[in-house]
Fold these 4 entries.
Entry 1:
Amino acid sequence: MSSTTLKVAAVQAEPAWFDLQAGVAKVVSLIKEAGTNGAQLIGFPESFIPGYPGCIWTGGFDPEFLVNFQKNCLSVKSEEFATIRRAARDAGIWVVLGYTELDGYSMYGSQSFINPQGQVVLHRRKTKPTGQERTLWGDGPDSLQTVVEGPNGIKIGGLNCWEHLQPLLRFHHYSLGCQIHVACWPYLSYAEEPEAYQQFSAEMQTIATRFTAFEGQTFVICSTQLITPENFEKCRVKGTCWAPQSGGGFAAIYGPDGAKLTPDVDPGKECILYADINLDAIHMAKLSADPVGHYSRPDLLSLNVGSSSSIANPATLIRYPTGGNYKLLSKCPPALEDES
């Protein structure tokens, strides 16, 4: 492929619920499969390890569940995380991994961008956990750096779940020059299902994801979890909107004009979706509207960014840099043990 074309992959799969070792093995298997099929970039769902804890939305404080959940989360300093990095290296593929990160005794909704050498080149945490997630995850410090230079110099970026509903964050994300965006999502009920809540429906999250492609003129890899009925009890969601009979998946890949590039798939079926994309399509989409370029009015409206992650974009006229280097990335070991 040329420097402007790329084969990308979106995951739709069920987590190995609350089992760290099995979760790592599943991630490794999916990375190998995507690499074998020629993908150069694969995106994973939100909190794929150890699985999204939907029960935090349906019941009260459950220390038995939460202690087990925490014990199966992923530390960037762990051998399990190193195993995933090696898998990316061995497959020769870029990986954007969504997971619940364990740092000490605190948890975060995190994304790590791993290059084909197994190096973590971007590590970020969900800037503001949503609703009940705030009983579990901390806020993400130093997480406005959402974009990094990826394969062939292409800029890849990502956001977690309802970060897609934060207009200022999206605007900042676009200003960093994102060309391929990874949207990491859990599973969700469809609107017609019993107990479904419209705001949390798969249809609404699809709108948010597709609008990101359309608004930002960026390719979007939408990766989602699913859940099967035999795991409703284990996940403590039976009889709630977090127990969709459909499976709750809505993975897809979208173009910078908002077009869907992948076929419809059963929301209860595990699969990896692939698309061969051509970055020249971004040129076409941005001819009419570039929200951080010719289609902006920074003399009238601009964004204040309280972080050193901002770039010199004319739409971000006022910045308050905190100084220093990007600190969150320093938590990740720079090299794998077998390379040091």
Note: Residues 20-36 form the longest helix (17 residues).
Entry 2:
Amino acid sequence: MKSIAFVAAALLAVADLASSAATKVVVAEADLASSTTAAKGVEQSATAPKPSAVSTHGCYKSSGELVLNTTLTYNTDAECAQNLCWKKLNLPVGGTSNGDQCWCGEKYPPKSDLVDDKYCNIGCSGYDLFACGGFDGETVYWTIYNSGMSLIVKTSEDTNKSASESGSSSSTTTSPTATSTESSGETIIVTQSAVAATVAPVAKSTNTAGIAAGVVVGVVVLAALIGGAWLYMRRRRNQDIEEEHRRNAAVNSFTGKPPGSSGGMSILDARLDPVMAQRRMSDGSIADNQDYSRRILRVTNA
């Protein structure tokens, strides 16, 4: 009897061990299945860029300035960012979306579009354990990479923020009432007095500049008038000198005086007797209708 009881107890112990082992196997299989399902489409954590190596830059809700190049049947971070964007297109930034789309460009998307990694949840078509973008039912997300071509890459400007800041600046300068703007998480209240205080120095500076410009223009105009008057007087004087020269030339031409001779009555008339020409000129006049080139004997009553 004791032996039978001992065998029964051993059988019960073996049954308990078998049941416990079966339960553990089922739990392990369930955990493995759960972990395998959750591991697909996981966004890799952002890391610092490395030379000649692909590094994840983050999950973004916009593509920024990136351009869709193609869809890849076997899409991965290296296939898109390194093999296509860098080695074929010579671009430093790559991005994936919808699992099979490859985007390339020169700049990262705006920092304001960076979101939590959980939004990039679609597995890559070439390796579904890693995420290649995401979709939450309303918004499309992109996984952005540094292709390894350059460690220093620019970031696109936030167009929405720039437009908002421009609108806030315009309302601040034109509205006479108190306004508020937000910059870097701080709220700045601008009152009418502050605006007036800002505008007053600008108006004063503008008036000073206008006065200086007027003085400069006046000086230039006065100098132009003086210069014009001097040129007119000089031209008038030259004209008078030329007129006097022409008048003297005409007189000299009429009297037979060479232009370079000095004043005086030293002109020799070809009609005069050479002997008479050497004598002192008489105070009397000589008739122009007489020919004195030949000696003529004249008889007069004494």
Note: Residues 171-200, 261-267 have pLDDT under 50 and may be disordered.
Entry 3:
Amino acid sequence: MAVAQKVASRPAVASRRGAVVVRASVETRRAVLGGLLASTVVALTSANKAQAAATPVDLFDDRKARNTGFDLIYEARDLDLPQSVRDGLTQARSSLDETIKRVKESESRIDADLEGFIKKNYWTEAREQLRRQVGTLRFDLNTLASTKAVKAEKKKALELKKEFIQKVEDLDFALRAKDEPSALKKLEAAKSALDTVLASVL
């Protein structure tokens, strides 16, 4: 009877030992995972602190840059805006001082560069320089003419601008023909026409 009781009690002891072993294994696994998680969090936190110290966030007031057209690319993609705003034409017309500055710059380049290119027979450079300057002049002369309060003055300025553009086209044709005497003669005519139109709009 005593032996039977000993035998009957052995499985209970064995199961108790197994439960203890399993319980110890689970607690060890939890402790290991907890330690790993804690070390990972500490490592990430220290890395973030180091990165924040290495690359601080600086705040700049870019409202002035935006007013000068820094983010014009975003306006160009905005289909709700008028086409003149998307193309930048409205922004360019908004500053009369900048328009006058561009006109004077174009005039100085036409006066200084074209004659030298023609005399050296640099026909491609002469054509490109002429077309670069006239591309902005055509636009800026219209802007300056639109500022005239009197309708007759505005009409006269636009007519003078049209005459200047015709002189430029004649000069461009002479440059394409590579005719040096004709190009020099038509250059002087274009300069004179430009001086006349600028006198009426400035």
Note: The chain has a mean pLDDT of 79.
Entry 4:
Amino acid sequence: MSNIFCSSFNFCFFNMADTKGFSSIETPGYVGFANLPNQVHRKSVKKGFEFTLMVVGESGLGKSTLVNSLFLTDLYPERIIPDAIEKQKQTVKLEASTVEIEERGVKLRLTVVDTPGFGDAIDNSNSFSAILEYIDEQYERFLQDESGLNRRNIVDNRIHCCFYFISPFGHGLKPLDVEFMKKLHSKVNIVPVIAKADCLTKKEILRLKCRIMQEIESHGIKIYPLPDCDSDEDEDYKEQVKQLKEAVPFAVCGANTLLEVKGKKVRGRLYPWGVVEVENPDHCDFIKLRTMLITHMQDLQEVTQEVHYENYRSDRLAKGIKGKENGIKSERGDNNGTAQVGVNSVLNEKDRILQEKEAELRRMQEMLAQMQARMQAQK
């Protein structure tokens, strides 16, 4: 009897010891779903993040230097700079460089797509066609992966942001700048950047910024709009977003060399008249550009997914359905008896899957509309 009592006592004791980590009666009204953001945070940190940045601009504007300065890494360790003879024969090509960056346990898979040869030719009428094809290829690849059977490990190589470098030596936008941004503003988030801002005075930078923004508005070009702050945000964040909006287009300069200024090591450029500090907001907008990119990285990905990719996807589906209808009509006109055979030859497996998914989405939208109508009727 005493053995039974001891064993039952030990069982109760161990059970009570095992429940020390759980919430007790001393915290009434606490369910625990306030801990859900921590679960999402842990899962995101474990999985890591992906981001793809495209840099476009003429040669010699400091694109590679700026990217290396932004992420404190060397993305082009083995790059060979072509000479003048090779540049004459060079066409626009795209080079994607991927690097894994880790900071305080958070991993970022950064892919930078460079466009050497853009704007260097005498006739630049077709210089952006390769860039457009590359962006569409990434959307098409993601669409095929999303429609496939294995959707667990999809690599997202879609362009989330495009830094477009504007020359500081002109008086605004060139015809190539206008045409390129018009072609791309519906496919990617464009962030205009004035390169080599250290060759201009503050008054010249302000004048050039105003001129560029006027030309962007007059040509109907849509650049990436920074999202408005919610009413419950703190004042410091609201002021930061306000300053970022006023700084567009960002006047920047990059540097990878460390210089000593007043006993401190800073990254900058040494001139006979002094030092341009890259990370000094009084000298250029480098810090503002980096703050915009880091604090709005998630929003850039969401805009790419919900706006640009959905536009491509809807256009792709619409073209596929129209092509299938034309194929079906032509088959029926040729031979009514073999109409079903013609339909099967036109509808391939991937298009059929896409069509089924579109029908499923329509059914879900109808169900949501019916539910909303019922809720309004109950009110």
Note: The chain has one domain: 41-228+240-318.
